[in-house]
Amino acid sequence: MGQHRMLPRRSRRIIFPTLRVVSLNLYNARLKHFMVALCVGLSAAGSLSWAPTADAAEARTAVTTPPGRPQSYRIAGADRRSSNYDAKAEILGYAQLVADSYGLALTDGQALKSAIAAFLANPADDTLARARDAWVNARRSWELTEAYRFYDGPIDVADTEAGPLMRLDGWPIDPAAIDYVDDNPTAGIINNMKLALTRPTLIGQGQSGHGSVTGWHAIEFLLWGQEPNIAGEPGDRPVTDFLPNQPNNDRRRAYLKLSADLLVEDMHYLVESWDPKSHTSYAAAFRLLNQREALGRIMNGIAQLTGQELAINRLAAALDGKDRRQLTSRFSATSYQDFVFALRGVRNVWTGDQGGDTRPGLSVLIGRVDPALAQRISHALDHAEESIALLQTPLERETLPAPSSSAARQDAERAIADLKRFASLIRDAGTKMGVAVYLPN
Questions:
Q1: Dihedral in degrees, nearest 10, Cα atoms 123, 129, 133, 138
Q2: What is the pLDDT of residues 221-253, one digit of tens each?
């Protein structure tokens, strides 16, 4: 398969600001600043011929583009004949899809928080099992939103600061930075009695080089514990780790509660960011973007997720190193479902459909511009989903250690190729439509 650049995005340490309790007033103030930057010169917003003034473009870039991200997703001088289309319905449909998806993720995140609270109130095998089930369910809903990353949206950048991505979904994590592990019974923040266990502490530890210590996988580690030596099996942290009135246990209980609180707070921020009814939300600004700028963000989201994140950063990296630590949800042994539901989120963007709701999707728009290309993309997505479905699971036991000549390894290589093929076709569609889709060579 060759050498791949491993984890170029998630392994990058991003400096976070001191945790902000997201209030609507503060949020609106930031988004008003964002709207001002976007609206300068937007009298022809949405038309393909609009070009911002230098000052407006600079202002927008300063507010919305993190370091290393492209300043524009429009291809300068694109053939007007091929990019003479109206994508308003698809852009509005996408914004509503994102809002609905984050709303579902928040609802399930709140259910997880409630299940954790019930477990901490009554630590027992059954309440722990329900908390674990709630995590698995909420994680599936979250994976549906991964297609809304990889451009300068709220998950990646908030005003001029880093967005909540790494705090929510930092990966991979070092469990020894959080709690005891097999070879170190006193490891981690939980067992460091000199360290105050507060929100600022957890955020500060994430900033100080300890890697991610909050979010989905911190909660996962706390609920399941370290993965066992038997590959493909989930962890089995004992309920006794959470019995109250013991110093280390009380800190573990506090850590779990704080992590759940932070998770839900950050998801509230994303829901507010994409609120379709707010005139000062990111969604409102998104709808005012030049159509090719908006489409560029939509298309980069699904192309980079499939062709870079899923194909290379996750599956290829784990295969190359035969290292289960590169898989996303290793403590619960549910990494396979992360592939399935992330790709389902891509399909939602492509078709516009989710949960029985139908909106104009990219397939309709690209079908108007180039019906044959749209059909090839649909087939490529079908193949990618089929390839993921054929992966031999559990991945940790059946796929990662398999020799290169084995059926399991060939299935995984096929999945990588199909994911990259879909992303490449999305890039081809972008070129056809005057949109730049950025993928690794």
A1: 20
A2: 999 999 988 888 999 999 999 999 999 999 999
pLDDT at 11 over 50: no
| Same fold flag, 89-273 and 291-432 | yes
- Domain boundaries in the chain? 89-273, 291-432
| Range 291-432: architecture per CATH | Up-down Bundle (1.20)
* pLDDT band per the 50, 70, 90 thresholds, residue 297: very high
Kindly state which CATH superfamily the domain 89-273 is placed in. Answer: M75 peptidase, HXXE motif (1.20.1420.20)
